[in-house]
Amino acid sequence: MPVPKCRVAVFGSYYRGFYLLNELIHGSLREHVTVVGVATDDPDASFISADRRVWQYPHTSYEKRMVAELARERGLEPFVGKVNEQAFHHLFEGTWQPELCVMGTFGQRIGKKLIEVPRLGFYNLHPCIDDAWPSKYLGGNPFEGLMRDAQRYCCVVFHGIDEGFDTGPFIAQTDRIALPNQTTVTDMHKITSYAAAQLASREIGKIIQANRRAYG
Q1: Could you tell me if 43 and 64 are in contact, meaning their C-beta atoms sit under 8 angstroms apart?
Q2: How far is CA 195 from CA 61, 64, 78, 201, in A?
Q3: For residue 124, what are the contacts with CB-CB under 8 A and spacing of at least 6?
Q4: Which contacts of 195-198 are long-range, i.e. CB under 8 A and separated by 24 or more positions?
Q5: 165-193 residue pLDDT tens
Q6: I need a surface site. Which of 10, 33, 193, 214 has the fewest CB within 10 A?
Q7: Alpha-carbon torsion 90, 91, 97, 103, what sign?
Q8: pLDDT tens readout for residues 68-116
Q9: Residue spans per domain, the chain
Q10: Do 161 and 110 touch, CB atoms closer than 8 A?
């Protein structure tokens, strides 16, 4: 009898969101997960604080919609509204029904009501360095802090989400990713996104396998 695939929802945008979604659809986990919903940024919406996030830097019109287009290629209509309102809660709990959620470059904080839905957890990918956790580079624009401190490398952490801002439990991180001396914030997003997606895939795979062992 085939083992049911894990129902996964993705909250993401820009390059980290794109590589994360692509990995779940086409990567090594494709036989083990079903992406049931995608929430992504509308950079023109006031509620995502675009002036304090990646969208304040130069970007193309395609980079705004790259996650949405990938979702539609898979037959999924992306959600671009407010995720902490009742309309999304109905969609999330009634239609998506995720067992696990993962986030990468998403312009809204996730409320407790959403965090508590997926039985296998709600996770995020966040850039930092490998000195401590929570990172001194928490918040909506960690790459700017890394650049300001002239860091020549960074890591990406896979961590659980709580009601704080990038303060949930540490789970795993990438190896050090080199940052060239003239790196920009947008460069940093591009340089680190593939490694972040691979980390997420690896750790989600472990979570799914542990759950299968526990419940047969």
Answers
A1: yes
A2: 24, 21, 24, 10
A3: 102, 103, 104, 158, 159, 160, 161, 166, 168
A4: 195/156, 196/16, 196/19, 196/20, 196/104, 196/125, 196/156, 197/16, 197/19, 197/20, 197/22, 197/23, 197/27, 197/104, 198/23, 198/174
A5: 778 999 999 999 999 999 999 999 999 99
A6: 214
A7: negative
A8: 999 999 999 999 999 999 999 999 999 999 999 999 999 999 999 999 9
A9: 6-124+158-163+190-211
A10: yes
CA gap 69, 171 in Å, rounded? 30
Report the amino acid identity of residue 123.
Y
Asked whether the beta carbons of 95 and 5 are under 8 A apart, the reply is: no
Q: What is the DSSP string of 145-174?
A: HHHHTT-SEEEEEEEE--SSSS-S-EEEE-
Tell me the fold of 6-124+158-163+190-211: Rossmann fold (3.40.50)
**Is pTM beyond 0.85 here?**
yes
